[in-house]
Amino acid sequence: MLNRTRIESVADMVEFRKNGVRQPARVALVPTMGALHEGHLALVKAAYGIAQHVVVSIFVNPMQFGPQEDYSRYPRVVDHDIALLSSFPHTVVFTPSAEDMYPEGPSWTVISVPGMTGTLCGLKRPGHFDGVCTVVAKLFNIVRPDFALFGQKDGQQLAVVRRMAEDLNFPVEIVGVPTVREPSGLALSSRNRYLEPHERVQAASLYRALSAGRERFGKGERSRQQITQAVFDVLRAAGIEAEYVALVDSRTLEPLEQVGRQPAMLALAAQIGAARLIDNVILTP
Ligand code: AMP
């Protein structure tokens, strides 16, 4: 491995991959947008469980933000991120610039998974998953990882990236990692820093609501209507109007009227103050 931990250009990353990794060492990629927290670190930890080299990319990808979204104010704290990763001494931190990733402006080639992105967050964020798939495909080609790790917290993203990698035969194994939460249940997110203290308390109700749905499921309930009703009840009591509460097949994201034999994802999104938050739980029959 090269004697450095930060790689700032695409060309240097390609070079590292060519000459810095000796076969049969395995490489895992953890793609992030930075402002790292314990959720991201769980991905890094899991990566070390399966690979000898771990590349953490930090790139706030302009292609996945809508015109009214928080691209310009998204937290950029690379020094803090690198310090957080110092407990993993051999991590390669890849921090390309937007100009390097998109030298001629937004990518002319766009990868979409239309069958899975016209639902859940895709409804409110048209083009978002095209931006995600395109940058992830680019990162796969630049880093050529054996494994790529994604959080279950972004359940739609995980399912969409899995499908893309499968459909396009990327030689990479997609690994999902369980959601890391605060003691209150609130899923860790870089966007939580937009929350005022009272909003943070309110935001903890998102997971309480999902847990109520899961509890109903645990007692034998299988119908979407009943399970989501349990979620809506908690949200209403907390004064939260959700953008969506949905029950879908966790692999295909097809809407479900009933939980069947396959794992289902109970997912929601809500705007709380300045933060649009998402969360989900998996219901396994
Ligand atoms: P982001 O920097 O928000 O793009 O997230 C980078 C990766 O970290 C994605 O695969 C996310 O799903 C994952 N991630 C973010 N928050 C959490 C969390 N609380 N628990 C587990 N994974 C997370």
Mean pLDDT, to the nearest integer, reads: 96
Tell me the helix content. Answer: 25-40%
Which range does the strand content fall in?
A: 15-25%
What is the CATH homologous superfamily assignment of the largest domain?
Answer: HUPs
Regarding quaternary structure, what we see is single chain
Structural category is alpha/beta
Q: Terminal Cα separation, in Å?
A: 44 Å
The low-confidence runs, each spanning 5 or more residues with pLDDT under 50, are: none
For this structure, what is the CATH class of the largest domain? Alpha Beta
User: What is the tally of beta strands?
Assistant: 9
Large-scale geometry: globular
In DSSP terms, counting alpha (H) and pi (I) runs of 4 or more, how many helices? 10
Radius of gyration: 19 Å
Task: Quote the CATH topology of the largest domain.
Answer: Rossmann fold
